[in-house]
Amino acid sequence: MSSTSFTDLLASSGVDCYEQGEDFLRGFYPETNGSGLPKFKTAQPPPLPISQPPQNFAFSSSELLDSPLLLSSSHSLISPTTGAFPFPWQIQSQSQPPNAASALQEETYGVQDLQKKQDPVPPPREFADRVPSYMVVSRNSNDGYGWRKYGQKQVKKSENPRSYFKCTYPNCVSKKIVETASDGQVTEIIYKGGHNHPKPEFTKRPSSSANARRMFNPSSVASDQSESSSISFDYGDLEQKSFKSEYGEIEEEDEQPEIKRQKREGE
DNA sequence: AAGCTTTGACCTATA
DNA sequence: TTATAGGTCAAAGCT
């Protein structure tokens, strides 16, 4: 599969990724079997039980706003003529439609050049400079999901250390690997597996203070500044793609209180 | 007290 | 079969 097929499909599907939930998912399927249905390597996925996919499945405005990359490139996000979404990594960095996951197997979208060129906006480092290192490193949850870091490794193929994250949602096997440069910039994100759940509604999460603090702490915003320089998706091990009907609704997070709290804590 | 990150050790896949 | 690299585990410590 190639990245061109992805955008081609998006273009051919003629969907607006922002506005169309289900259509977005449909259009998101990077590969079809010719009948408009996605190809699945492991098993035929159940039909999407979501008659009205939550908007968070695509983007939340706060996240969009948080990303200077998105802002800086927003003028070219969607082709007015084709409707093609030129930045599939934005979709994936936000969330992975579970059923699209296997179709994205071994798909890699590299956007290093783009990111490096468009990352002149200095992140709000005032937080990162004050908080403990692990808090800084945890700047990775802007996609709305809760991630727990379970390992870090310096790999040979890259001079930057990799951090390994698991989704904190119960029974969710989604993982992501974040490669972070010495200056704190995220140079690569690799998603493995897809979420079998919607974005958690952090206000309802147990121990919401702790989770919310990390999920929406401003330092994560700082990370967002540089995140998505390169995002890869590996859904090879994704088996359980069934969507649970327990769809929570998290449209937009009012992160102002969290930011304030974080500021207090960071001081 | 709960949940998180850190980090060295261990496990596994691959050449 | 062995060496190496990548991925994961789990105890310790932190917020």
TrEMBL record:
State where the protein is found.
Nucleus
Q: Which GO terms describe its molecular function?
A: DNA-binding transcription factor activity; metal ion binding; sequence-specific DNA binding
* Ranges of compositional bias, category Low complexity: 219-231
Domain WRKY span(s) in chain numbering: 142-200
Disordered: annotated segments: 191-231, 246-267
Quote the cellular component terms of the Gene Ontology held in the record: nucleus
Bias (Basic and acidic residues) occurs at 257-266
Q: Which UniProt keywords apply?
A: DNA-binding, Metal-binding, Nucleus, Repeat, Transcription, Transcription regulation, Zinc
Q: Coiled coil: which residue ranges? A: none
Can the keyword Chaperone be found in this entry's annotation? no
Q: Which family does it belong to?
A: Belongs to the WRKY group I family.
Its protein name is Probable WRKY transcription factor 25
Q: What is the lineage of its organism?
A: Eukaryota, Viridiplantae, Streptophyta, Embryophyta, Tracheophyta
Give the stretch of the parent protein shown, with its full length: 1 to 267 of 361
